[in-house]
Amino acid sequence: MPAFHDDTPPPGLPRADSLPEGILFGKYELGKLLGCGAFAKVYHGRNVLTGQSVAIKAVNKLKVLKGGFTAHVKREIAIMRRLRHPNVVRLFEVLATKTKIYFVMEYAKGGELFGKVSKGRFSENLSRRYFQQLITAVGYCHSRGIFHRDLKPENLLLDDNFDLRVSDFGLSALADQIRPDGLLHTLCGTPAYVAPEILAKKGYDGAKIDVWSCGIILYVLTAGYLPFNDSNLMSMYRKIYRGDFRCPKWTSPDLQRFLSRLLDTNPETRITVDEIQRDPWFVKGFQEEKFQFQELIEDPASEVYGDVNNSKYLNAFDLISFSPGFDLTGLIKETEFSSCVERFLSAESPEKIITRVEEVTKSENAAVEKNGWGVKVEGLDGGFVVVIDIFRLTEELVVVEIKNRVRETDQDGDQRWKDVLRPQLECLIYRSD
């Protein structure tokens, strides 16, 4: 049965271990180092086929696994896959070798916004322009259940036209991380930009802490310095908790009023993104860019795939997660069931595969539940549950993933699946010869 390995490049490209030094998968030329973090480095890169500049974030897989950041990396990619906005850095694709995971992203030639404002404060009009772009991007993320949680000038980049691009979603949260109390609880963020409710450690609303950080950013752009700053961290936290700041004398009354609403220490009365977009100071000269979110089927060797016509398309990270060296399924522990996961290639259509599964399981009087390109088969006695998902790999091939969950106390169910049902699916497996 064909197997996936994380050092195998997309179809049509040579293996990573046969490439000249500095070339990834025969496609990207690595350039100068742009920055580095705890387990990743960011390089300038160039697509050798098109000449396009890209940013390549190289993540050390060993550090990710040892540090327990597997879910963290998976979430960052899942988040970036959802985002297509003119003011958000775009993820083009994800590649991997045995030791590294590579995020290939849009290159922001203008660098960090922090580098610009560190040379001197911006005019109120220029600050407003960047703040409008920031809020447009943040509102877009929130509408898709994504909360950044680490907004600061260092994570805001500028493109060739000096338009803003939000980047670094490594600390971002998804709506499904919200606890039953309706709040997030993970402590995160950069001290000078952290909202007071995070310091209280009682849970927080992801959208409201992003608004607070946006308020800090706007203050920095117009003032040239932080609203809450102290060499002693605890003293700075006390200022944040009390909302102890003053606007510079050169800020207009409208901006001072606006900042007081953004930096309201009470999250219940703090201005919302919708209210921001109706505020008189904000709307001055505001022209929201109109765009359409389009997910296209691209060359299998390049782009991250999207869902097209309700079918499931694999992206490079899906293939990485299929490999034994970066298996993400082990993160979920089920005490009642043991699980066995199998994957194979098939040249049959998803519809034909599902029909075959129905035919095979009919003899066992099992309950079958279909859901798009997936099917769930459950033994009538509940002894086993088989979940089959089908993903489009190319126009000709699909990946069939079979998850066989067997109750620990019912090994007979496991044998019925392995000995009676599973062999009848062998005809679906793609044979290259």
From TrEMBL:
Entry's EC annotation: 2.7.11.1
InterPro entries: Kinase-like_dom_sf, NAF/FISL_domain, NAF_dom, Prot_kinase_dom, Protein_kinase_ATP_BS, Ser/Thr_kinase_AS
Gene3D superfamilies in the cross-refs: Kinase associated domain 1, KA1, Transferase(Phosphotransferase) domain 1
Domain Protein kinase: 28-282
Positions of the NAF domain: 309-333
Keywords tagged on the record: ATP-binding, Kinase, Manganese, Nucleotide-binding, Serine/threonine-protein kinase, Transferase
GO MF annotation, one: protein serine kinase activity
GO biological process: signal transduction
Pfam families in the record: NAF, Pkinase
Binding-site positions, ATP: K57
Reaction it catalyzes: L-seryl-[protein] + ATP = O-phospho-L-seryl-[protein] + ADP + H(+); L-threonyl-[protein] + ATP = O-phospho-L-threonyl-[protein] + ADP + H(+)
Residues that span the membrane, as ranges: none
Cofactor: Mn(2+)
Record PANTHER family: CALCIUM/CALMODULIN-DEPENDENT PROTEIN KINASE KINASE-RELATED, CBL-INTERACTING SERINE_THREONINE-PROTEIN KINASE 14
Family: Belongs to the protein kinase superfamily. CAMK Ser/Thr protein kinase family. SNF1 subfamily.
Protein name (record): non-specific serine/threonine protein kinase
Lineage of origin: Eukaryota, Viridiplantae, Streptophyta, Embryophyta, Tracheophyta
